[in-house]
Amino acid sequence: MFTNLINNLENYLHFEEEDLAFLIPLMEIRTVKKGEAVMRVGDIANYVYYIDKGLIRFYHETEGKEHTYRIFRENMWASDYAAFLTRSKSGMNIEALEDTLLIQLHYDHMQKGYERAKAFERFGRKMAESLFLATVQRTVDIMVKSPETRYRELLENDAEIINRVPLKYIASMLGIEPESLSRIRKRTARFPVKES
Q1: Given CA atoms 150, 129, 131, 4 in this order, what sign does their dihedral have?
Q2: Cα–Cα distance between 126 and 172 in angstroms, integer?
Q3: What is the pLDDT of residues 155-182, one digit of tens each?
């Protein structure tokens, strides 16, 4: 059950067997059905989530319209991390886009890990750095790259997600309307992305 998680952790840094033996029992398995909320705006962000299977979407609503911030898939960590670190209310909704298997770590358990071993502190720092860099990159991309460039980069970096996520959410994540995404998809279909 925890094989994917352990492999993911080892990608961040090496954990000693006894550290993993301490951490794994602190993790909680959570199954979320497609369309079900993982967390809602106003909930205290108590958990960081490892996605073992499935997809989740972070979004918020403004004037009755949903805005997708980010979509996370298998082998990724996700959380409203600022709210998680400050033990405050989330400003994001998190919803399962497919039947999803999460392995979640409570804030208090993460703190126990920090107290136990430096490896946990390094892991927490690396996770925070990774989430911070992704947030900064998304902000910069929205500000300086065209919607077509953002779409092409999504195709190059994570083409599979296009087939798994409703296009209205992809459009929202790219900061455009679905009609604009449809036009971009028609143009890019004539000029396919080169396979690596």
Answers
A1: positive
A2: 28
A3: 999 989 988 999 999 999 999 999 999 9
pLDDT band at 29 (very low <50, low <70, confident <90, very high): very high
Buried b (16+ CB within 10 A) or exposed e, 54-83: bbbbbbeeeeeeeebbbbbbbebbbbbbbb
- Residue carrying structure tokens 């430096």: 118
Beta sheet of 77-78, edge-to-edge order: 28-32, 100-106, 47-53, 77-78
pLDDT tens digits along 34-47: 999 999 999 999 99
Could you tell me the CA-to-CA distances from 128 to 29, 35, 95, 181 in Å, in that order?
Answer: 22, 27, 22, 31
Distance of CA 127 to the CA centre of its chain: 12
Could you tell me if 125 and 24 are in contact, meaning their C-beta atoms sit under 8 angstroms apart? no
pTM, two decimals, is 0.88
